[in-house]
Amino acid sequence: MAEAASQDLLLAAAFVSDAQYNRNIPFKTSPEAVRLYYLYNHWIMRTATYFFIFLNLSLAVFEEPAVYPLPFLVTSVVEVLCLVVFFGRLTHFAKVTLRNVFWKDTKNICIMVAILLSLTDLAIYGVLRMYDVRSIRWSRIVRPIFLINFAESRQIRRAFRSIRNTLPEITYVFLLFMFSLLMFSLMALKLFGERNLQTAEGLPYFKNYLEIVFDLYVLVTTANSPDVMMPAFDFSSWYALFFIAFVIVNTYIFMSLFLAVVYNNYKKHLKNEIRKLAYMKHCKMIEAFNILKEEEGAQFVVREAQWKQLVKLVAPDISNSHRELLLRISDDEQKGFIDKKSFVQLADLLNIQVITLKIRSHPLGQWMPGVYKSAVSRFLRSMVRHRGFVWTYDVIILINAIFIALDEETPYISYAEWVFLALYIIEILLKVYTYEPRAFFGKNQFWNWFDTLIIFAALTATILNTTLKSTTKYNSQQILDIVFILRVLRLIRIVDSIQRFRVIMNTLINIVPTMLTFGGLTLVVYCVFAIIGMELFHGKIQFFPANSNAPHSLECGNAALKDSLFARAKYCKNNFNNFASSFIVLMELTVVNQWHVFANGFANVTVQPAKLYFIAFHIVMVIIIVNIFVSFILEAFFVEYSLEKSEVETAIEQKIQELGMGVQEDELQDEHLLDNMESAEHDLEGEGGTKPQSKGLVFKIASKPSFPLFYLIFCARLSSVASL
Amino acid sequence: MAEAASQDLLLAAAFVSDAQYNRNIPFKTSPEAVRLYYLYNHWIMRTATYFFIFLNLSLAVFEEPAVYPLPFLVTSVVEVLCLVVFFGRLTHFAKVTLRNVFWKDTKNICIMVAILLSLTDLAIYGVLRMYDVRSIRWSRIVRPIFLINFAESRQIRRAFRSIRNTLPEITYVFLLFMFSLLMFSLMALKLFGERNLQTAEGLPYFKNYLEIVFDLYVLVTTANSPDVMMPAFDFSSWYALFFIAFVIVNTYIFMSLFLAVVYNNYKKHLKNEIRKLAYMKHCKMIEAFNILKEEEGAQFVVREAQWKQLVKLVAPDISNSHRELLLRISDDEQKGFIDKKSFVQLADLLNIQVITLKIRSHPLGQWMPGVYKSAVSRFLRSMVRHRGFVWTYDVIILINAIFIALDEETPYISYAEWVFLALYIIEILLKVYTYEPRAFFGKNQFWNWFDTLIIFAALTATILNTTLKSTTKYNSQQILDIVFILRVLRLIRIVDSIQRFRVIMNTLINIVPTMLTFGGLTLVVYCVFAIIGMELFHGKIQFFPANSNAPHSLECGNAALKDSLFARAKYCKNNFNNFASSFIVLMELTVVNQWHVFANGFANVTVQPAKLYFIAFHIVMVIIIVNIFVSFILEAFFVEYSLEKSEVETAIEQKIQELGMGVQEDELQDEHLLDNMESAEHDLEGEGGTKPQSKGLVFKIASKPSFPLFYLIFCARLSSVASL
């Protein structure tokens, strides 16, 4: 019986944690499946999956054409290993979930097909290789599928789904844009084609319709402005009007239109997704409730003891007091049980970060109370807390900045570096002495962590460099570079002293997690294009150091580039000869400028239709992904600007206040002041002894949702909408 | 007594029309002032003011350095004339408005100061000129003040006010951005400064801190990507990481942040403005009501007769039936009077475009009923109405496109041009024959107007060209160019046949009026920068035709440009030698690409700090104005996408339906079908005879607000908010 109850609890906990983390895995309810399910979601398993996904992707670095070449045998063994791990993970998932659900899910099918394709391609390539026949490793472009389709990378998949849903609308705007482009090209052909004008390179100007279309497409991206206009403009000033009209219509209006369409659709689809998610969450919580419910009077409820065990299972790392708080919120009237409505809220309650502030005295105060509470120590601590302390260090940072800008060679200045390092270390020590160390290195104290890491890294690197210098009389350039960068990064701290800047910086820091999703998206697009690019352009363009005397070293080792803009601009190192170079080229193409020089250069060394590769990349990356990125940043900022606490958050906060364990934000000058370097909004204060319930313990809602930001807020808001 | 009543009506009508057009002129209520007020708002007076504002601005074209030089005497007389007109307008305004209000308004003071400054400068310049001393006409940069500050250009002033309100927030982000730029520059100096690297032009690379800051600022605008990175990248691939980090932080994140801040603030301030406006409107309507009110039972009301006279005064050009409709809405229960609440709505009611569709038979049907109603005529008309007719012409347009792309010289093709022209003219005639001409050329029939104008312009130009050719054996190039453009523009019509495209095009057309505001904004910024630019760079760079043998003709007539990128790219015609050239250069700077080549080129021929001019232009134009433009397009599209009819519109529509004069949108196949080329949304149908009230008359709310778009919608929505 006890065993059965515990089984029920495990199953309910699985449902609740699914709801909490917005997972949508329809698992089987047998005890064995639930155990497998826990194993499947264990952080080690998840991290391992990610590790193998990235290992598989990074194989491109070691395979031909390689940055760091490894024998084919090694890379193929690693690839097979990765595929086996993926297959294992999939089998594991199949055992957890229902059979018919598993086979209906396209992402599972995708993974299986991708594994099969990769194996087949590997086998064919291996066999052909034995007979010394070179073939294309075409299966490499399916590798990003693993990153998209494993259940762990839900965010990226959602982004891809949004893109897919946005495509029809974008397509219409794109067709209209193409129509406008073709019309303007036709006009250009008629207006300039028969004038026998020449470009700055002496080539015929606007003679061929397709070339005009390409040139004007480049003008839309502004990459060849004003060069493309100059010959016509030199001929007659009035022709500038044609190009002005073109730029207004195509660059300004159509490109804004793309952003508007992408933004609008992305927002719409995201809302739908989140609505669906909230509904799914609700269903999961109801299932959990139904497992644990017991009859109490006219209604079904969950007993307090059950509930506590459930929370312990779902969130083992939250403190007892936090759990007690959640219980008080769920069981408002202390009846000893939780009703359905309060129970369903649990997933959202668990998601809200409540900072438990233990009002502890400083450890030194406990170990050496005599010394710590002496007049000198008190003076020291009040000095560190004083606003002047911050200002003094701001001045020091500014002086440091001037010293960095000055020449390195003067011995006084390199000694000064040691002085600054010492000053910064003293600052950190003083702060740790004054504030409670565990509070100083708290979870949300980004800047404290940042400072400490930077200073100690700089210290280590400087010592290492000095040691090397004194023993081998030789500066290691890599270490010196790192020292330089760390030294400059230290200056960022000054931003933290100005309230307005800190607000902007905090917003930027809050967006980081969501930007990682776009990092993933970009990675997928880059991988696919890099692999295609390497197949198309590998080895066609070579980079030779400045003093090389290889044939055609000035033309990037390819006679076809003679007199081309590509060779003249010395772009030879921008090539697709290995994975890393390809990424850098794609990065430059994302920035857009000069992409037509790349397109023309690579088309010259292969075939003219190769330009299509560059146009395709521009459409996918710049018109779609970058616009989504911009939409995302816009939306994230609007949410940050208009951040209101959700209903659930308000409920918690109310309860915290009711229990007398809240943070009084107005009593700032107190002895227990934790950190006066934080903004007013962050100012924490604990007045433990006045209220009976609080045992040196205060709670505070984390002022900004630190995880997927607006996603969470939406969830919390929509959960009430979706409560069916 | 009648005279007094009429005075009251005039005064009330002035208040109502102020409310209707969102004017905020606190005029005096004396009879004379009201008469002057009417004169002040007369369209001729307003148009004349605009004419003189633009005349004053366009003087820059004729003054030294001139595009079309005119003697100093002529331009100065014209300028004095303009200033006199402005002064007259201001005096007129002073007579209309209250004395203390007039002197408190900064815009009046601004205009007066601007007039004084202009006169002083003109006098000094004239006197110095007599003694052959050349001085600077510095007052020319105050001329755009007239465009901003005359009450007529309210939209532009509002945009400027929004910008001013957005500035503090932008400044903080900008400072943070500058801090990031300076930090990265410091790192770049430390990392690359001592490597003795060289740029592609053989210049030292990243040696001087200020130059690094400039180069990296240019990289933020992406204009020198990837050139600025290549030397470091060639030295070591790892250094690419520095530039990638730089681009992600500064180009992607900070530039999106600018857009976010501008968009957010612009939206916020616009909402505030509109809230204020709605309040002001309400006050004006209350004042009008208080003038006309009479006691009726327990409440004050306005009698129907008074109301009708008022509407006739305010909107003399609306039809009797439209006025009747408005009365029915205001006096819902036909009590013979209008209460306060309904009266206040009047300003909004007048703003809503109600299309009065008179169901008239075709004039030919009245003149020659026998012919027009014959079987042949009926067949012809049903043929034109058939979907196949549209398709046939779509095919013709496509064939036309192919003919245009083919070579002009073949005689058959130039004959074909006549065939196409004839076909298009036949189409228009057939349509006018089938549909009622006044409906065909209705106010909202944009495409019909477009077609007709294009075709007739093409016909005129082609005939003119042929005449010239046959009489003088010589093609006029200008006319030929216009013929080419018109010929291609005809092809746009094909867009109109595809539903999805038409929706996008209609949205674009709806944004045009609001884009004009940004045209005004841009004009002001361009004028100021063009005038400064001409003072700084006039004559420094000369353009010589290709075969010129002037000294330094390859270096744009300036030895300082030898070997510069500017001269090598043949940018000599991009100079500040006259007003028109300056505008084109500023346009190219707005597009951003290659702006650093301009900045370096112009700095070389003058002094290095001249680069600040280009940076200032970039900040003002690209970071602020273009972002506002993008925000505006985004907002406009979101409003278009989520367009719901406002409350007032719904009320009118309800009333139209109640009165049985609505348009039945489902009966499409009717004989009276007006225009089956319009979208389903636009399909108009009038079934006159079935309901007793409708005397061959139907109403329809214009499906999109055609004037300041989202502004109106906001107004209508907020008027209920602001009802105090």
TrEMBL record, chains A, B:
Secretion signal, residue range per the UniProt entry: none
Example of a GO MF term: monoatomic ion channel activity
Taxonomic placement: Eukaryota, Metazoa, Chordata, Craniata, Vertebrata
Keywords: Membrane, Transmembrane, Transmembrane helix
Official protein name in the record: Ion transport domain-containing protein
Gene3D superfamilies named in the record: 1.10.287.70, Voltage-gated potassium channels. Chain C
Annotated organism of origin: Otus sunia (Oriental scops-owl)
Pfam family for this entry, one: Ion_trans
Main location: membrane
SUPFAM superfamilies reported in the protein's UniProt record: Voltage-gated potassium channels
Superkingdom of the source species: Eukaryota
